[in-house]
Amino acid sequence: MPPFSLDDFLERHRALELPTNLDTYFAAPERAGTLLELPLNLPEPVVAEIGNALCKLDFNRYPAREAAALRTEIAERLRLPPSHTVLLGNGGLELIDLVLQGVGHGAAMLTLDPDFFMFRRSAAKHGVKVHAHRLEPDFALNTSAFRRTLAETAPDLMLFSNPHNPTSLLFPPCEVERLIAHAPGLVLLDEIYAPFAPEPDAALRLLERHPNLLILRSFSKVGAAAIRLGYLIGHAKVLERFSAWQSSFAVGSLALLAGRAILRHAALVDAAVRQVTEDRDTFIADMQVLPEVEALPSRTNFVVARFKGLNVAELHDRLAERGVKTVPLAGAPALAHCLRFGIDSRKRNALTLEHLAAVLRTP
User: Fold this and answer.
1) Could you tell me if 210 and 359 lie in one domain?
2) Which of 110, 189, 256, 294 is a Cys-bridge partner for 66, taking CB atoms 3.0 to 4.6 Å apart?
3) Is the pTM of this model over 0.85?
4) 162 shares its domain with 235
């Protein structure tokens, strides 16, 4: 038997173009401020309760009871039907990974073009074939055309985000249900940005009628990205299959007690989200008056702006020189000439618009 060869190992286990573990990728200084966190920390009463609970935590115990309690509390808050439950995970990304692992190597997935880039990364990792349906030039979802793509590809999993990442738009629930009704397999609806939508829980009403529907939620976008806590909502028998792929005690006690504190102070957390939503709408209205800027409607905590006739890469660099963080969008033709702006504090939002106006005035 030949001895271990590092070169042979690396050759047989080639890395993806961009690793699915993004810790190092997003730790780079140039990507600071681009992760779309809520610009506000958790409200003080929530932080205080977490601190008090931490002092009483039995660090020598596994978190079995805490996990069961949080699952029950989420289900009660969302008023899930008795047939449905919640599966907790170490952030939304872990649960996306878990579903793709569960549908299995050689399965087919249908997503949108464009959509959250991690869908394709996770599919590649687990050997899932990817089909993509391209959005219209205005980012609209043509449901008739999408149904034809469904019939042609017969995917084991249909996966897309709503509110949509990267465009920040919202597909109406009635259109989404028509697609779910024609899906031959599971449907995973990524609703990480749902708190910023006009009706955050609209899709929950579809669960009883469609046992193939899974909904992904997270605590990250409501001010708790640090705890890495996400959850899947779905039919109990479906989630039971996926939970078999998950590591035992996948979510630690610290995240669980923080999640329970957030639910107990949901009104305060919701108020913070509303403030960011109002600031977003003000940001869009102020941006619209600038020349050569088309700010798209947003139902997330970020804004996509199209700069027709301008060099977006150069615009991005000039804004970066002024300390303004943006992300040039790419991948689908409709994303050409688009920059993404994260919503920050009111002061930072105003400064961003001032810098953008100055750059646009200067050739």
Assistant:
1) no
2) 256
3) yes
4) yes
